[in-house]
Specification:
Blueprint lengths: L1 H6 L3 H13 L1 H4 L2 H17 L3 H13 L7 H17 L3 H13 L4 H17 L3 H17 L3 H21 L3 H12 L9 H11 L3 H15 L19 H9 L3 H4 L4
Helix pairs in contact: 2-4, 4-5, 4-6, 6-7, 7-8, 8-9, 8-10, 9-10, 10-11, 10-12, 12-13
């Protein structure tokens, strides 16, 4: 229901819905259920420009004890903490949790995704040599994956990070070559096909292309894409008049007007 309210741009109702869930016994007495609501609330608070509340929710996620969680949710917890801190512009804390995940029980698929996000964080911090080492290691892990679709998804993630590194190092020509290679990959099995492409174009300050692929993402997923509001690599999108129109369309302008 919370997701439906968000898609309908009913932000106050969505916030109240999640807050009420946390007061019910089903969530008070079950840390697995509670954690999932925390994830949704964190995303909501970032979207509606309530960063202080997002930070508080992230602290609550940190304080959920591992021994009280189902085994598969322990890695999810740390993965989300790493992602959340990156979205909060705290890359050093993000690195801490990615590294913690990689020290946990090895799992090729999990380790591949963790490495991709770790490399992304290192690129943001301009530690390009370390990021390159991580991507080489990720490529090796990719070869051990059994499913073809997983190999393709990881290869796409590697190219995304390589393109970001090229952009950060002003190697614009090769960045566009890499983006062209990404476009040629199978969009039907790549979860973030459009998302990564519009992020790269925005990072290049190719705003028209960025918005073209952003709206293709919305059309493909048949739902709004709120990440443009807080995605680190899409900062340039938020300097364009079309961004104001988006905020108004999604009934978010009043939340953000004093921060623009």
């Amino acid at each position: 229901i919370g997701q439906i309210l968000k898609r309908q741009y009913k932000w106050e109702e969505a916030e109240k819905y999640y807050a009420d869930l946390l007061k019910s016994d089903y969530y008070i007495n079950n840390n697995n259920n509670k954690l999932k609501v925390y994830f949704d609330l964190f995303d909501l608070y970032l979207t509606i420009n309530k960063k202080d509340k997002a930070i508080k929710i992230n602290k609550l996620i940190e304080n959920v004890e591992d021994q009280l969680l189902e085994q598969h949710l322990i890695k999810v917890k740390y993965f989300r903490l790493a992602m959340n801190y990156f979205d909060l512009n705290q890359p050093k804390k993000s690195l801490k949790y990615y590294k913690h995940m990689l020290e946990m029980h090895p799992n090729d698929e999990w380790d591949a995704w963790s490495n991709l996000d770790l490399a992304n964080c290192l690129i943001y911090m301009k530690d390009f040599d370390r990021a390159s080492e991580i991507l080489i290691k990720t490529s090796e892990i990719k070869e051990d994956l059994h499913a073809r679709r997983d190999k393709i998804r990881v290869e796409y993630g590697i190219k995304f990070n390589e393109a970001l590194s090229m952009i950060m190092n002003k190697d614009i020509e090769n960045a566009y070559v890499t983006i062209h290679q990404m476009k040629a990959m199978d969009k039907n099995i790549i979860h973030h096909y459009y998302y990564n492409l519009f992020s790269l174009y925005f990072c290049l300050n190719d705003i028209d292309s960025g918005y073209k692929w952003y709206f293709m993402e919305r059309k493909d997923k048949k739902k709004p894409c709120f990440s443009i509001i807080y995605d680190t690599w899409s900062e340039n999108a938020r300097k364009d008049d079309r961004y104001i129109d988006l905020l108004k369309e999604m009934k978010l302008y009043d939340y953000w007007k004093d921060s623009l």
